[in-house]
């Protein structure tokens, strides 16, 4: 993404077109994934996402799904702690998780929970402190997942339970002894 549309406005149509091209560009590059992520940082792509997330920009459902598919690709491609750390810079991942998605759209909710599930699979690579907001008031991955334990769609419920179980595996007292364990003890169906 060129910086010409930053920081004041984003041409969403052009942004989506460019976003769709990035996975192919990354797949065809001979750079390490760490260097590929740094290129995305340098290009202003993450800055554009940051603007969208922090300003709670209104984007339509299809754009939300494309954003989420992009992030799913990015998370699935991370295999090292240093790569994950790039994504958590400036609280970007936590802002993504807490973005005001359209929860009335089953497709958006399913896409979101797929992304969160993929991220939860990477918790062994993530410094537990990064899972919290900068002020350490809450863990967005936990906060966003809990409401979907009870949901009309079984795929979403399964993903939410999977995320919570992965969070239980983290060796962080604040997560495992706090809100997560209280939630699990109240709702035994999480484990069934």
Short description:
By secondary structure, the chain is mainly α. Helix content is 61%, strand content 0%.
The major β-sheet equals: none
H/E element sequence: HHHHHHHHHHH
Which stretches of 5+ consecutive residues score pLDDT under 50?
1-8, 187-192
> Which secondary-structure class do the elements indicate?
mainly alpha
- Number of extended strands: 0
Report how far apart the termini are.
Answer: 45 Å
| Gross geometry | globular
Mean pLDDT: 83
Oligomer: single chain
Radius of gyration: 17 Å
Describe the 3D structure.
The chain has 192 residues and is mainly alpha-helical. It contains eleven helices and no strands. It has helices at 12-27, 33-43, 45-54, 61-77, 81-88, 92-98, 106-120, 140-145, 154-168, 173-176, 179-186. The protein is globular, with a radius of gyration of 17 Å. The N and C termini lie far apart (45 Å). Mean pLDDT is 83; it is low at 1-8 and 187-192.
Layout of strands and helices, then pairs:
Blueprint: H1 12-27, H2 33-43, H3 45-54, H4 61-77, H5 81-88, H6 92-98, H7 106-120, H8 140-145, H9 154-168, H10 173-176, H11 179-186
Helix pairs in contact: 1-4, 2-5, 3-6, 4-7, 7-9
């Amino acid at each position: 993404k060129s910086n010409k549309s930053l920081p004041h406005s984003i041409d969403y149509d052009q942004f989506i077109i460019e976003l769709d091209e990035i996975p192919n560009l990354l797949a065809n590059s001979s750079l390490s994934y760490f260097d590929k992520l740094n290129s995305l940082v340098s290009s202003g792509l993450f800055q554009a996402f940051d603007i969208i997330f922090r300003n709670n920009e209104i984007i339509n459902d299809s754009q939300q799904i494309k954003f989420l598919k992009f992030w799913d690709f990015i998370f699935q491609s991370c295999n090292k702690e240093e790569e994950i750390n790039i994504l958590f810079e400036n609280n970007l991942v936590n802002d993504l998780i807490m973005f005001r998605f359209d929860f009335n759209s089953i497709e958006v909710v399913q896409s979101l929970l797929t992304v969160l599930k993929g991220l939860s699979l990477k918790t062994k690579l993530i410094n537990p402190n990064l899972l919290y907001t900068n002020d350490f008031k809450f863990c967005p991955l936990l906060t966003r997942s809990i409401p979907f334990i009870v949901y009309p769609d079984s795929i979403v419920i399964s993903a939410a339970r999977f995320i919570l179980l992965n969070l239980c595996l983290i060796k962080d007292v604040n997560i495992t002894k706090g809100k997560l364990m209280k939630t699990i003890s109240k709702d035994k169906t999480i484990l069934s």
